[in-house]
Design goal:
Layout: E1 3-6, E2 15-21, E3 27-35, H1 43-52, E4 57-60, E5 65-66, E6 69-70, E7 82-85, E8 88-97, E9 101-110, E10 113-122, H2 134-146, E11 156-159, H3 165-181, H4 188-198, H5 206-235
Parallel strand pairs: 3-11, 4-10, 4-11
Antiparallel strand pairs: 1-2, 2-3, 5-6, 7-8, 8-9, 9-10
Length: 236
């Protein structure tokens, strides 16, 4: 059984910091920061947060503009450009545009120190609804997980527009994904409920909640199929 505790002060009431603990009180090293998309007056604070928390991966689940409505400030420089955000300098080293997402590499500098941050931008999640298929979303979740090369690194920062619906859905799927892999009990209801205790409206709609079940069901089916193929190969 796992539960959450909130550890970070709320900046403008829009940020929550989650750490998972086990039954013995030992904290998992992988954590999440859930936040809304940066606004023009919070971009500098956003980059300061990324630097201070040693964030290795930023997961963006919204477009900057959706249905002619601006949901998020474009907070990163164009490829090859460098910008100063308060005391933090950021350079977009590369950008790889794929079918369902864009992967960028940021180089951050502060004083005499430098960090690399991976930006995983899911572009296929519609403003109203859920991704087209659980398989596609699970593929993205796996790609994000692959970017974590050191479990001692800082938390993954996840944001959409408001930082609750799509953000909560991603965190829930990723966390339960780990439970299944580690053969632990799966409690989707409990996972969402715990998140909502510390950040209201996480997993904002019924469709998003149902989509979590669809993703986990698909992952379990994929895992079962892989095991069956493995045993068929051995028997052959």
């Amino acid at each position: 059984m796992f539960y959450y505790i909130s550890l970070l002060v709320w900046l403008y009431g829009k940020i929550a910091y989650f750490r998972f603990l086990d039954d013995e009180g030992d904290s998992y090293l992988l954590e999440y920061i859930a936040t809304q998309g940066p606004l023009p007056n919070t971009v500098n604070d956003f980059w300061t947060l990324v630097w201070q928390q040693s964030v290795p991966v930023i997961v963006m689940l919204t477009q900057c503009v959706e249905r002619a409505v601006k949901n998020c400030e474009k907070y990163w420089p164009n490829t090859g450009e460098t910008k100063l955000f308060g005391d933090v300098q950021a350079n977009t080293k590369s950008e790889n545009i794929l079918t369902s997402h864009v992967q960028r590499v940021f180089v951050m500098k502060h004083q005499n120190q430098q960090n690399h941050v991976i930006h995983m931008h899911l572009t296929s999640w519609p403003v109203s609804g859920c991704p087209r298929s659980p398989e596609e979303f699970l593929h993205f979740v796996r790609l994000v997980r692959m970017q974590i090369t050191d479990r001692r690194s800082g938390p993954i920062l996840v944001h959409c527009s408001a930082g609750v619906g799509r953000t909560g859905t991603f965190i829930a799927v990723d966390r339960i994904f780990q439970h299944v892999q580690q053969k632990e009990d799966v409690d989707i209801y409990g996972t969402v409920l715990d998140m909502r205790r510390y950040r209201p409206h996480m997993v904002h709609t019924a469709d998003q909640y149902i989509f979590i079940y669809s993703c986990i069901n698909q992952f379990i089916l994929d895992k079962k199929e892989a095991q069956e193929d493995f045993y068929e190969t051995i028997n052959y």
